[in-house]
Amino acid sequence: MDLLQYTFFQHALLGSLLASIACGIIGTYIVTRRLVFISGGITHASFGGIGLGLFTGISPILSAAIFSVLSAFGVEWLSKRKDMREDSAIAVFWTLGMALGIMFSFLSPGFAPDLSAYLFGNILTINQADLWLLGILALIMIGFFYLYIRPIVYIAFDREFARSQKIPVEIFEYLLMMFIALTIVACLRMIGIVLAISLLTIPQMTANLFTYSFKKIIWLSIVIGFLGCLGGLFISYHWKVPSGASIIFFSILIYAVCKIGRSFIKNS
């Protein structure tokens, strides 16, 4: 294929694979623990870090990573307080991040920055630094989940049971929230803030149609996520539409086909 000779397309393919691995692993925890809304809050809170990076002149991805991790810890801490509901804690960081992001981006010196790249992403623009970030994060999460898969599964399904097994639930929860935040930031250049949560949930929902096993959902999510990225890339190339939106569109298409096919087989 002619496209494969281009470096940007090779980067896009490798980025798709690494993102699928990272999102497949942590996304399974998100869906199982029903943290989709929290993850959406962290995703939008990261915009504050991007704005801060543009304003101060440091890497927007680095500042977004710091801001997202702190926001994730903040949501986790506030949601455990008796005087604060979880959805209220999420709303605080969601709106604060978006507000700060808009304010700092408009206060940034020089030309007004192009925020669409961060809001909607473009997988064809990812570079070697993005690939290194995704690769290192994916390797760390593979190692972490391999070593601690049993306590992670316990926490995902029943925190009280996990506590009865002497598992340090709070430490694991904060570490996993950090991984959620870092995965979101690592995927921003690919699919953007608006669509990032989709890559963490749609492949897992599709995988969940076929199995309830935590480990099998991870493996299936990685495969389905990568197929979604490949399909989205080709739609983007042929129709000349944004790659981030194309990836999510194709992922939802896979989910719809699997859902309808499963219902048809079950009823026949």
Automatic annotation (TrEMBL):
GO annotation terms (biological process): response to zinc ion; transmembrane transport
Transmembrane segments: 12-31, 90-111, 131-153, 174-197, 217-235, 247-265
Official protein name in the record: Zinc transport system permease protein
Main subcellular location: membrane
Organism: Bacteroides faecichinchillae
UniProt keyword terms in alphabetical order: Membrane, Transmembrane, Transmembrane helix, Transport
Pfam families the record matches: ABC-3
Cellular compartments annotated: Cell membrane; Membrane
GO cellular component, one term: ATP-binding cassette (ABC) transporter complex
Membrane topology: Multi-pass membrane protein
